[in-house]
Amino acid sequence: MTSPSSTHNIDPSPLLSKLPIQKIPGDYGIPFFGPIKDRYDYFYNQGEYEFFRSRIAEYKSTVFRANMPPGPFIASNPNAIVLLDAATFPVLFDMDKVEKKNLFDGTYMPSTSFTGGYRVCSFLDPSEPNHGKLKRLFLSILASAHDKIIPKFQNEINILFTNIEEEVTNKGKADFNAINDNMSFDFVFKLFFNKNPSETKIGTNGSKILTQWIFFQLAPLMSLGIPKLPNFIEDLLLHTFKFPFFPVKSGYKNIYDVVYEASTPILDKAEKLGIKRDEACHNLVFVAGFNTFGGLKTLFPLLIKWVSLGGETLHKTLAKEIRSIVHSEEGNQELTISMLEKMALTKSVVYEVLRIEPPVPYQYGKAKKDLIINGHDAAFEVKKGEMLFGFQPFATKDPKVFENPEEFIPERFLGDSGEKLLKYVLWSNERETEEPSEINKQCPGKNLVVLLCRLMLTGFFLRYDTFTVEIGKLPLGSSVKITSLTKATNN
């Protein structure tokens, strides 16, 4: 059986086979010192985006060799072939060609102490038996929660908006990230486990516990950006040794215990699938805490950021579309999926945010066999066992696919021509046009995330006409502070 993604970047057709084979430019430098040089370029001397741009210019190629962080001493082999265009990138989704074992965080893997001693689903290759079982379990959880998503999320964003309004009134601005973190944690916990976390031993600390837990795993991929902290000290602290589990152990155990107690039916189903109860529970914490909460923690600020940059004209147009559809329904004013499907601009805006700044920018895969990867103008030979790395924000801004790729264009995905571009929106470890399955590595919550973004915008513009923000940078994602809100003039 072949995977749904096996149609991507398939073996060369007679036409594609005529592409010239080009040697992959670049090198890895002197062992040990080359990776450290690239790490300093990546984090400090150039920064992430310029690291890639400068090499594209130097090699005149969007495919090249480089060392990817963190390198010594965390990653034993930082060597990677970098893919930065829409033609080569999709090979990373092809499970017939690449292996995903232990590559969720790239060239290194955090200690399994963070996940109860288990390699959770995100670190499993689809060829491993437990991958399919766990993916099936996650998809069944989402399917069973389908009818609860809209009402539960509406309840939570109403609290979110109330808290934002209070902060803007009392302090002059509201920290969207902090308020969103609490809202996202509460929503995920209530949706997956039907529990209000504040009524458990987690209390009101859930988002902070998970944020620390996530940070300890991803720290080697971050720069804190603290001006007065010398680069060599930050590099020593973040990028030289893996963080230990013990500082976040007690908080993680609290969340695990509550999830275990609340998930009896899910754990029963897991046992029937052949998964041990404790392994299933650690996977539940990871998929709810890391994948879902961690994703929403990053994505919602990005959504608000880019919509704010669209300006008042976009805000008014979105408000008009959303309100006209919601208010055109006779009688019951409950929001439905069919209403959301009619909001064409709202959908396009969500896809454009996912295109211009994918919430998870990195993808890795290790070649299962000798490959030829086809680019736009040339083909490249890859040897079995070589690491492939893709930086999604470059692939989703490929100028050979998207006009004005660096611009945020809200209407980009409208109409038939816009729909045809959706296969180049790559944010979910697959194309947007594909669906999560047991035999691919696409995020099981891909459709949930798109739905929640639409719901966020719908709730926002039913309540407000326009807004302004201050935007900053965080180690992962953007900082958003809302500085003004104009209440809706016609509800």
Describe the model.
This protein has 491 residues and is α+β, with helices and mostly antiparallel strands. It has a single domain (100-358, 396-487), classed as Cytochrome p450 (Orthogonal Bundle). Helices cover 46% and strands 11% of the residues. The strands form three sheets. It has a five-stranded mixed sheet with strand order 1-2-8-5-3. Strands 4-10-9 form a three-stranded antiparallel sheet. Strands 6-7 form a two-stranded antiparallel sheet. A hairpin with a 4-residue loop joins strand 9 (464-473) and strand 10. Helix 5 (176-193) runs antiparallel to helix 10 and helix 11 crosses helix 16 (446-463). The longest helix is centred in the middle third of the chain and has 33 residues, at 277-309. The chain is globular. The termini are far apart. Its cofactor is heme. One of its GO terms (biological process) is carboxylic acid metabolic process. One of its GO terms (molecular function) is iron ion binding. Keywords: Heme, Iron, Lyase, Metal-binding. This is Allene oxide synthase.
Question: Mind sketching the topology for me?
Answer:
Layout: H1 33-45, H2 48-59, E1 63-67, E2 79-83, E3 98-99, H3 129-144, H4 149-171, E4 174-175, H5 176-193, H6 206-218, H7 231-239, H8 249-262, H9 264-272, H10 277-309, H11 311-328, H12 337-342, H13 344-356, E5 362-367, E6 371-374, E7 379-382, E8 387-391, H14 392-395, H15 415-420, H16 446-463, E9 464-473, E10 478-487
Parallel strand pairs: 2-8
Antiparallel strand pairs: 1-2, 3-5, 4-10, 5-8, 6-7, 9-10
Helix pairs in contact: 4-5, 4-16, 5-10, 6-10, 8-10, 9-10, 10-13, 10-16, 11-16, 13-16
InterPro entries: Cyt_P450 (IPR001128), Cyt_P450_E_grp-IV (IPR002403), Cyt_P450_sf (IPR036396)
Protein name: Allene oxide synthase
Keywords: Heme, Iron, Lyase, Metal-binding
